[in-house]
Task: inverse folding
């Protein structure tokens, strides 16, 4: 029992991160109708930036406060992502408006290529580590309820909390602030949005910046756990099933989807894995999503499609 | 291909050309709609609609925008499944059927806002209407084996007759996307005719046309009705057209049926008049 | 400019529906065939066979398969690599487990297995549409990755997880030299190319395109979505499977599961988008683009006499490749095939502009 | 030059048909000699359906017997109304087989005109193409109840017509088969009984003045005319001709019937009026006929389309055309040209001329003819320079359109060629051209007095054209004899001569000149809407429709320039200097056959126009600077409306007479 709960908790925590990345997708998809395959590359790019700046700033400016370094690096990385967003909008998106969904998807694949290699060109292609001083040691809770209690990694907790915080802020941002509502307007209907005088270009830059920021946070968390290297960009692949499970256009969907996948994956790995020879979490998420879609083709929270003729 | 070969192989002969002239006398009821109700989520699109269509007649469905006219057609050819009610076609009654069955029973359909296959040529669009009648299997098609090719050719000839009938020879191989709106409407009709339908559902065939195009379309609709004896169910906004060419008219308003009868009866019906007051038709 | 179409009138539908109705096109195709079957084998070097012609041809075949699904039937698939893998491994197993299995049968067998697998993963397409489906097809990709990695039986219990094929022989004849392999592949590609062409310009092709362009209307004229979509998946994955088998047998010879990873899937998708959706010819253009560009790009530094580390070089190469893709999508979203078509049209209308 | 294959036809082929024969017998002969060669093609249902000579012969027989079964007998007239459809040509032969006479009528004639001709020719049997024509004929029948049988080719829409005497061509052929079974020898006997001097066809003259007259031509004369053409251009099996001009028009009858039956080549009918150009491109006829207007239209469309071309292409085109103008015609005439130029021309042929011919559907043309009106030298030179062997001939309905033709190698721009085989020419004292020979009409149908007017005792036919014959025997037509007037200055005034010069400008569609019994020449101009419209658009000159465009000062300037050039021409020609145009105005509407301003063959009815626009004429000579006018117009659908405008009167640049010697 205790072990099961541990697994679930582990799942939930991983899930929060999936949710985070998935959120990036949903935002971008809602606002610009682009299924952003480059999300993973953005994570890599951001993480690399963060890791390297944190390494470089002390050297350049000659100080040795890890906190300060991280802080500066984080800001710098964030700025990088804004620049990236701006370039993407400038060079690709605005030239591709009104193209088929698949064409846009292809474009993001191209962008992913560019970001991947650009990142590694600029910041190097070795493995780097990010240390934002996350507590590494595990902790025991509820030892009164179960004997031995539940063993949880503080690091995961920390990450989960961070992610959760960010998710909430973003959700609030979209519900409450004017810009947020503007973004939703665009998402719902481009013409309408333009007609009420919202410059599409700026919206896109903002959204992609947010996407970039989300990627950065995800990158930091992941990076500090596993170190920063090319493979980190694969985290995006984890997020795909989450998005379609929740529904491409739904923020809550992304969050819930993330948690479901997170838990499902861990549980299945532990309880099913052994019989199938392990390593099944790679595809389990997808099969799970597939199963859900067969029941609800538009995902859990996606908007329903009615054929009009 | 020579003069003799111009007489069609029997299986591809259109009902009109060689068949004995079906004088346009109205026959028995061929299609009967009973108490159809349809709703999307909470929204009621149709409530308890009943009417019948007789063989060889031109039956019009009119009503203000959002009266549920298109939804009615969508129910008849199985795009939507009504929550209640049944549809009787040539004596068989169905509660819900899929589009394929409807098509097989000889009901064809044109669309309000063009639903052509924009990636294909005029020829292919109309050809696709013959697919229902094409039998050869995948492998045969891949190899263009004798029968498969002969089938393709025979149906091509049939389609050419439709192209001829609709006077669109000059655009045969043009991608439909490049045609002016009026011609696209014709192609849409052509695709439906290719199915050799017994009942033809026309969803606003003249919407957005200029006077001349409307005249042409009217002529085609009537010719179809005469030449091939096809029964026609017609949604149209242009009252003039409706009153001219239809035998009987159903009037819908907010998903309810508020009138049914000959053009004159309907025109006189006070409720109909009320429904139309203030609406721009 | 070179077209002289006067007097080329058609007196039968057969002539009018011929593969190449215009005489000049027929001649051009004949010339092309002559080059491919005669000139190239005589002139090309072994390296060029291995590095260019063979991969180009095989990828073209795979692209044709994918194009049928995506370009003609409008069902986006990100799992092509998986279908290639199935084809390759199935063919491999047929070869190792059945003695004296003729190469051709092994390839076809591989294709058939891929077909079954494809239909299986095509079933969701009956309910799921568009990007949802696209992502869903990744399930196939990852499932197969995992399956080929973890299930020893697939690799015939090879310790390393990599498999290597025996000699390519068929009815006593052995394809050993690159030229022979090239001719083998070329022949197969031409045959499958023609068959595919026939399909897409026939009844079934119209059903596919109808589903793609306007599925409701398609249903109303009596096209069964189930049949249309599943045949598309079947035909597509059969061709892709055969391509996969060829890729493993002829191009690689020995391979590991990673050879058919998601990168391959994406690469193939690139090909058909850049080459042109809904065009058999486009599949070839796309394959050529994807095969030649990298070669070209990593020659450039040498020509410019730049000394850069291979790592940097490969990064640059990726970057430029990605950039070019975006560029292409912007200038000609309909792909090289469209450019080709417009060019041809211009030649037909020459000297008139339109 | 691209491949110009010449059919090598057995010499027997031409002299096969002994001089005294008839069309039906020629048909029978072809059916015997080349039963399976294609006689006719029609683009129908998307492909070119072909009839072999045998099939034509059989269908003609069926139709003939069908007609016979309805009581059609020798000397009955069979009216034919419709577009160029193979089966309509066959019905003509069917009528002739029974010793009857086909009377092709213009399909676009309105019921009134048609009733007149039906009555005039006492027609009881008529072949109609489709519902449209049937409706018209039923209308005619109210005036002309003796119209007993209306036989239609296309049953579309006629299913529920129950009027008496309606019959589809299919049904006619069925009756025919039945009748033939009962009276097997009837057909042969009828064919055998026909004499070469029987009337083969009655063609109605468009009649620039007065009511149309039915011209009776015999088998003998039309066959002679046909053979003349066929022999001088070595036509025969393997040649393809496009039949797209009205059947009622003598030219079409000469090319698509007489020459077809003599030469035994293949007739090709377009799918529909919209697709003619395209069908022509597919067939690529080897032998082509078109009135100057057609060639002009083609050239206009060429220049318009080239203007949208990329700069480089336009440059190339200009260069090549310059070369062609310089040497093209000579190369075609076999005149000496330097090797270098020949090489250059080859290149040009590869890059421009060849493709151009291909786009015009003229790649395979061996011989192309034009006639019916004067053709502009530039126009004429253009086609010859790009390697199209365009030639002129001269003739009228009364002479089977067969009087003069230009022989290969002896082509002069200004002349219409030398007297055709079997014809002799003479110029009367008043300058009128008189002709005598094989092709001269038998008579006007039931109009002895009219016949007497044009046929004199010596058998000369008075063409009504004024012309001159040069030293080499080339005839040059100046004008209609009766139009040639005298100005108060005493100078000879040949309006058409001037008008044609004007019409050679693509911007000018029609022109009407006045000058007889006046001091100066003044002109009405019709702009070419398409050409001028394009010109305006390229200059970013906004305009709202024809009337507005025609009124634009820029356009007036453009026209004035053209007129200036013509005046310069005239000044240079002996005796023409005085007929330079002093003032002109641009009409606010297109002259239109439906408003009786043009004949069906688009010749100006100058008398009628002069009366109708009296106010304008007066304004021109009354020294006004502008004039308001309101005119009634008929639309296609028969409705009528009015257009009105204020036309400004513009003076034109004139030049002092240049002595020819100088």
Result:
């Amino acid at each position: 029992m205790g072990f099961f709960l541990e697994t679930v908790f582990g799942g939930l925590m991983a899930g929060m991160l999936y949710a985070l990345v998935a959120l990036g997708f949903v935002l971008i998809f809602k606002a610009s109708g682009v299924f952003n395959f480059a999300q993973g590359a953005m994570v890599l790019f951001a993480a690399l930036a963060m890791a390297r700046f944190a390494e470089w700033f002390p050297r350049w400016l000659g100080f040795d406060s890890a906190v300060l370094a991280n802080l500066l690096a984080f800001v710098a990385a964030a700025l990088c992502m804004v620049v990236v967003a701006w370039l993407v909008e400038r060079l690709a998106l605005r030239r591709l408006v009104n193209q088929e969904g698949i064409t846009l998807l292809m474009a993001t694949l191209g962008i992913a290529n560019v970001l991947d290699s650009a990142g590694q060109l600029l910041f190097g292609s070795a493995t780097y580590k990010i240390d934002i001083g996350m507590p590494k040691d595990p902790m025991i809770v509820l030892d009164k309820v179960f004997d031995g209690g539940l063993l949880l990694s503080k690091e995961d907790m920390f990450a989960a909390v961070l992610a959760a915080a960010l998710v909430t802020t973003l959700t609030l941002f979209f519900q409450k602030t004017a810009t947020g509502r503007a973004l939703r307007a665009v998402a719902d209907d481009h013409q309408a949005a333009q007609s009420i005088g919202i410059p599409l270009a700026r919206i896109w830059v903002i959204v992609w910046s947010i996407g970039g920021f989300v990627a950065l946070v995800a990158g930091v968390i992941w990076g500090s756990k596993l170190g920063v290297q090319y493979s980190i960009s694969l985290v995006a692949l984890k997020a795909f099933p989450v998005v379609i499970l929740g529904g491409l256009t739904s923020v809550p969907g992304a969050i819930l989807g993330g948690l479901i996948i997170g838990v499902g994956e861990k549980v299945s790995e532990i309880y099913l894995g052994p019989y199938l020879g392990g390593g099944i979490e790679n595809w389990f998420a997808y099969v799970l999503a597939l199963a859900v879609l067969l029941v609800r083709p538009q995902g859990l929270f996606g908007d329903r499609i009615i054929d009009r003729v | 291909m020579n003069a003799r070969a111009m007489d069609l192989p029997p299986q591809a002969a259109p009902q009109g050309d060689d068949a004995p002239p079906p004088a346009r006398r109205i026959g028995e009821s061929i299609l009967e709609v009973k108490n159809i109700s349809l709703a999307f989520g909470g929204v009621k699109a149709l409530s308890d609609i009943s009417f019948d269509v007789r063989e060889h007649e031109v039956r019009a469905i009119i009503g203000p925008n959002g009266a549920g006219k298109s939804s009615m057609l969508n129910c008849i050819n199985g795009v939507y499944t009504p929550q209640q009610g049944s549809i009787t076609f040539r004596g068989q009654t169905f509660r819900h059927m899929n589009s394929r069955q409807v098509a097989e029973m000889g009901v064809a359909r044109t669309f309000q806002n063009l639903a052509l296959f924009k990636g294909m040529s005029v020829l292919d669009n109309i050809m696709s209407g013959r697919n229902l009648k094409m039998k050869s299997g995948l492998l045969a098609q891949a190899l263009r084996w004798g029968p498969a090719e002969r089938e393709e050719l025979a149906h091509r000839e049939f389609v050419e007759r439709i192209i001829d009938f609709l006077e669109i020879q000059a655009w045969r191989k043009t991608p439909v996307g490049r045609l002016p709106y009026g011609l696209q409407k014709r192609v849409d009709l052509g695709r439906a005719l290719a199915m050799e339908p017994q009942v033809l559902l026309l969803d606003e065939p003249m919407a957005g046309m200029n006077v001349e195009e409307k005249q042409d379309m009217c002529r085609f609709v009537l010719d179809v009705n005469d030449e091939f004896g096809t029964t026609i169910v017609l949604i149209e906004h242009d009252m003039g057209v409706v009153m001219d060419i239809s035998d009987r008219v159903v009037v819908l308003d907010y998903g309810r049926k508020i009138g049914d009868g000959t053009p004159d009866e309907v025109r006189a019906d006070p409720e109909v008049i009320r429904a139309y007051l203030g609406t721009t038709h | 400019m070179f077209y002289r179409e006067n007097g080329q009138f058609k007196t039968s539908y057969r002539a009018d529906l011929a593969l190449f109705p215009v005489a000049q096109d027929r001649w051009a195709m004949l010339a092309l065939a002559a080059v491919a079957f005669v000139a190239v084998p005589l002139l090309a070097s072994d390296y060029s066979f291995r590095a260019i012609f063979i991969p180009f041809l095989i990828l073209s075949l795979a692209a044709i398969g994918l194009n049928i699904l995506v370009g003609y039937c409008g069902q986006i698939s990100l799992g092509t690599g998986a279908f290639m893998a199935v084809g390759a491994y199935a063919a491999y197993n047929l070869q190792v487990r059945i003695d004296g299995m003729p190469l051709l049968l092994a390839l076809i067998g591989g294709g058939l297995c891929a077909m079954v697998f494809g239909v299986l993963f095509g079933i969701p397409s009956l309910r799921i549409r568009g990007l949802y489906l696209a992502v869903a097809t990744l399930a196939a990709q990852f499932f197969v990755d995992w399956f080929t990695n973890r299930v020893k039986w697939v690799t015939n219990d090879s310790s390393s997880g990599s498999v290597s094929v025996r000699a390519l022989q068929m009815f006593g004849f052995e394809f050993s030299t690159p030229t022979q392999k090239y001719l083998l592949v070329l022949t197969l590609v031409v045959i499958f190319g023609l068959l595919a062409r026939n399909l897409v310009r026939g009844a079934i092709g119209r059903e596919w395109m109808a589903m793609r362009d306007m599925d409701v209307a398609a249903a109303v004229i009596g096209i069964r979505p189930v049949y249309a979509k599943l045949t598309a998946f079947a035909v597509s994955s059969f061709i892709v499977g055969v391509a996969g088998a060829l890729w493993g047998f002829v191009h690689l010879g020995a391979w590991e599961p990673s050879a058919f990873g998601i990168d391959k899937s994406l690469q193939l998708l690139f090909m058909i988008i850049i080459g042109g959706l809904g065009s058999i010819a486009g599949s070839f253009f796309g394959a050529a683009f994807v095969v030649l560009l990298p070669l070209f790009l990593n020659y450039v530094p040498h020509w410019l006499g730049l000394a850069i580390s291979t790592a940097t070089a490969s990064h640059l190469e990726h970057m430029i490749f990605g950039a070019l893709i975006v560029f292409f999508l912007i200038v000609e979203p309909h792909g090289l095939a469209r450019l080709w078509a417009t060019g041809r049209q211009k030649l037909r209308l020459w000297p008139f502009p339109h | 030059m691209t491949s110009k294959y010449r059919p090598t036809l057995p010499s027997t082929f031409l002299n096969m048909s002994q001089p005294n024969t008839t069309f039906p017998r020629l048909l029978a002969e072809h059916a015997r000699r080349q039963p399976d060669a294609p006689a006719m093609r029609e683009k129908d249902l998307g492909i070119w359906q072909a009839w072999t000579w045998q099939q034509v012969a059989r269908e003609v027989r069926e139709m003939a017997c069908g007609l016979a079964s309805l009581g059609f007998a020798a000397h009955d007239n069979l009216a034919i109304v419709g577009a160029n459809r193979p089966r309509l040509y066959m019905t003509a032969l069917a009528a002739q087989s029974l010793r009857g006479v086909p009377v092709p009528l213009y399909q676009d004639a309105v019921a009134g005109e048609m009733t007149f001709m039906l009555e005039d020719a006492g027609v009881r049997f008529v072949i109609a193409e489709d519902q449209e024509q049937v409706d018209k004929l039923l209308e005619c029948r109210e005036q002309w109840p003796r119209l007993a049988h209306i036989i239609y080719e296309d049953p579309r829409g006629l299913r529920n017509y129950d009027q008496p005497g309606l019959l589809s061509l299919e049904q006619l052929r069925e009756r025919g088969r039945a009748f033939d079974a009962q009276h097997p020898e009837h057909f042969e006997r009828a064919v055998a009984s026909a004499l070469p001097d029987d009337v083969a066809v009655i063609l109605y003259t468009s009649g620039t003045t007065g009511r149309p007259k039915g011209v009776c031509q015999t088998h003998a004369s039309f066959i002679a005319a046909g053979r003349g053409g066929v022999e001088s251009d070595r036509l025969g099996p393997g040649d393809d001709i496009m039949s797209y001009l009205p059947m009622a028009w003598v030219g079409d009858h000469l090319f698509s019937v007489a020459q077809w039956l003599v030469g035994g080549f293949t007739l090709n009918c377009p799918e529909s009026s919209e697709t003619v150009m395209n069908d022509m491109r597919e067939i690529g006829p080897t032998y082509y006929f078109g009135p100057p207007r057609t060639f002009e239209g083609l050239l206009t469309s060429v220049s318009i389309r080239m203007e949208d071309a990329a700069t480089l292409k336009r440059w190339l085109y200009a260069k090549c055309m310059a070369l062609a103008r310089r040497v093209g015609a000579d190369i075609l005439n076999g005149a000496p040209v330097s090797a270098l130029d020949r090489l250059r021309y080859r290149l040009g042929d590869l890059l421009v001329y060849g493709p151009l011919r291909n786009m015009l559907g003229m790649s395979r043309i061996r011989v192309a003819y034009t006639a019916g009106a004067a053709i502009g030298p530039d126009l004429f030179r253009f086609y010859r320079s790009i390697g199209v062997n365009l030639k002129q001939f001269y003739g009228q309905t009364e002479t089977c359109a067969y009087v003069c033709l230009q022989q290969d190698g002896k082509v002069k721009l200004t002349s219409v060629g030398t007297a055709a085989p079997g014809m002799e020419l003479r110029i009367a004292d008043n300058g009128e051209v008189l002709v005598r020979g094989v092709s001269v009409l038998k008579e006007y149908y039931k109009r002895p007095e009219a016949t007497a007017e044009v046929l004199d005792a010596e058998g000369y036919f008075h063409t009504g054209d004024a012309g001159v014959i040069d030293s080499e025997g080339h005839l040059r037509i100046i004008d209609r004899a009766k139009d040639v007037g005298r100005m108060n200055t005493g100078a000879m005034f040949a309006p058409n001569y001037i008008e044609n010069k004007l019409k050679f400008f693509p911007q000018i569609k029609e022109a009407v000149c006045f000058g007889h019994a006046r001091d100066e020449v003044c002109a009405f101009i019709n702009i070419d809407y398409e050409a001028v419209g394009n010109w305006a658009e390229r200059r970013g000159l906004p305009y709202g429709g024809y009337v507005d465009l025609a009124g634009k000062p820029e356009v007036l300037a453009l026209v004035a320039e053209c007129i200036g050039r013509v005046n310069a021409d005239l000044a240079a020609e002996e005796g023409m200097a005085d007929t330079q145009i002093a003032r002109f105005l641009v009409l606010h509407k297109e002259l239109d056959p439906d408003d009786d301003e043009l004949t069906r063959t688009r010749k100006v009815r100058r008398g009628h126009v002069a009366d109708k626009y009296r106010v304008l004429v007066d304004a021109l000579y009354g020294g006004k600077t502008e004039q308001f006018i309101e005119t009634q117009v008929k639309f296609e659908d028969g409705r009528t409306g009015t257009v009105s405008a204020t036309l400004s009167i513009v003076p034109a640049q004139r030049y002092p007479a240049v002595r020819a010697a100088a």
User: Anything to note?
Assistant: The radius of gyration of chain A is 20 Å. Residues 25-238 of chain A form one domain. Chain A touches chain C through 51 residues (CB under 8 Å).
